[in-house]
Each structure stands twice: as C-alpha cells, then as structure tokens.
Amino acid sequence: MTDDPDHMQLMPDGSGPSTDPSVPTPVYPDTPAAVPGPVFDDRGAPLSLPPAESPRRRRYWAWALFFVVALSVVVAARWNLNYYALEPGSAQPVQPFITVPADKGHPVSRPVLLTDVRIGRVTALTYLFYKLQGNTALEPLESVTGGTPPSQLTAQGQLEMSQAEDDAKAAALTRLGYPVTSTPSGAVIFGTFPGTPAYGVLEVGDVVTAVNGTATLTAQALTTDLARYHSGQSIDLTVLKGGKGSPAQVRITLKSTRVDLGGGQTVTLDLGIQPEDQVDYAYPFPVKIDVTNIGGPSAGLAMTLGVIDALTSGSVTGGHTVAATGTIDSQGDVGDVGGVAQKTVAVENAGASIFLVPPQEYKAALSKVRPGLRVYAVSTLDQALQVLKAHGGKVPPAPVTTSPTAPLAPVAG
User: Are strands 234-240 and 214-215 parallel, antiparallel or unpaired?
Assistant: First the structure.
C-alpha cells in the first residue's frame, strides 16, 4: 500500500483506489459531458442565458477588425494633404563639389558649408507626426510649388541648381578680377501648366530659341513674339531639348486655357509656359561646380565663397566653421531662400560657429539659434566677405574698376 496521491488509481469497477501500479487506469469514452442545470433568479424564475460565442466567430471578428485597421492605414498613407513638411537637412563642405585648374588652385583647410532641408509631401498618416516635431514646418502646397505641378518640382530644382552653379562661378571670378562675359541664348522653360498645349510637349530645361523662324534669345522676346499669335493657330518652336544637342522643330497648336495659379488667381494662356532667360557665360579658365543630390538655388552664396577660397591663398573662413545660404546672381547680389529655420538647426548640428543668411531670413535663423552660433545677414557677396574678414578670414582685395569720367561743371560766361 502507498499513500502517494500521484500513484493512486481507481479500481476497474470504480469502487476505490488501487494501490497496485500494474492495474491500468480505466477509460470511459462514452461518458457524457456534464450538462449545467438551469439557472434561476432570486425569485426562482429561470434565467435565459445567451448562447456562448464560438471560437470561430471570435476569430472572424478579429480578422475583420485587423483588415479594417490595415485598410485605414493604407488609405491614410496614400491620402496626400495640401502641405509639404520641411525638416532640417544636412550641412556639408562645399569644396568637394568644386574643381579648379591645378595651377590656380590652393588647398582649403576649413571649407564653407552649404546646407539644405528635407522636403516631403504630408499625408493623412504623417500629419500628426510632423505637427509634433518642433523643428519641422508644414508649408502650404502653393507656397512651395508656386502653382507648378508637383511632378515638375525635381526637374525645376535641378535646373535652379545648374543656374546657381553658373552664376556662382561668374560672381566669384568677377570678384577676383577675372573677365567674365555673358550672352543671352534663349528662353529656358521653367515649367508648364496642366491642360495647356505646352504640357507634356515642352519639358523643364528645354530652351526655345525661335518662334516660326524668328529668334527669341530672352524670355521677354519669346513672350512678345507669342503675343502675335492667338488660339487656334499653330506655331513652330525651335527647341534645344534639355538645353543641349541640335535644335528641333516642335509644332504646337495654341488653345486658350484657363489656368488656376492658386490663391484665387486664374489666368488664360494660349501656350502655357513659364519662361526664364537662358544665359551662356564665357569664363577665363574652366571652373566646375557639380553639386549632386541637392536641388534649388539656395547654395549659390556658399558655392561662390567656395570658388573664391579655392582660387586664393590663405583661408577665407579664418579657421572657423562657416555655413552660408542664399541665392547669388552674376553680380554678387544675395537673394532670399526658404527653410532657413530648419537650415539653422542643420548647421548647428554640424558645429558651425558662423552662419550667413539673406536679410529676409535673419529672424527665422535667430528663432532657432543656440549659444555658440552667430548669425549675420548679408545682401551681397562683398558683405559676406567683410564678415569673414572681421573674423580673421583672408579676403582678396576688391578688383579695381574704372569709374566713368565725370561731366565737366558748367562754366559761366
């Protein structure tokens, strides 16, 4: 006999425990399951209980809920709102993008930083996420695109960067006293409007040089010449596709089209293009600027300072980590850019101690400035160089220019 409950088994007739381990435990497969009896309330009346939900039905509802949630996420991720999100991008040395002749170049120990922003379309799924980011700005669609279809933004950014590279070389070389000449060479297409005759026929970067054989070497000349034609007429445009190669003839039939420019502004266009001046520069020697993976003109000032630094001895930055943003034209004028608040965060993260910005964006930069970063508003290349000179930078002297002869004072008598 044993009293170990782990070894207690019933006798085959169920009369009591068996202490013999050789006796098998009986199995009764036909024994019915226990059926619960009726349930009564406090007064003795039977209660009607709802039928128990089956596991299969519970699984069905779980899968249905999962499907609804997943579908909602997919829809929200694809539902574009009328906003773009501007986030701090990067601040990187401009010098690796600049190449000058070996016999004219000088080593650059502390190059100027160019900076950018990351931009992305806001969806219903990401709106709240972006809204809660302290350094992210949500900008209305129209303020970013200017009425241009989003599909053309990348091409426009590349065109603007190419133009900024040319202008930066011209401004830098002119400031160093080298001769630079410019020649108008046509009207470059900056954008086309959906629904107009030009849309899908002319692309961003195409250069129109003539209308029906008449040369149009500026945007104004093209606009003036197009005014001679009206809806229903066909015109032959001489076009350099992408601004390169041999001229091609493109025939387009004009059609009056109502175009929404955004902000409640509409206009009727027969062709539907945004033309700008295309200018060819002649430099005294080859200088190459090739900024990759960044679009837009805002690196103009930084590229100009980078070319000057590469072509002069000493350090333009005076050993400081200097960042710059702002457009530049061939005369050295600095223009407004966007996203400076986010760019300020980027240059701070890169360890910059001096940040040059256009005057229009000075307050935006100050709104994000932290101790250790000094922000300066500059409207010209010369002002930027004077700021760097005040901080120990070696700045080349301004070229000597010949002033026009002053008129003689009238002589009485």
Answer: unpaired
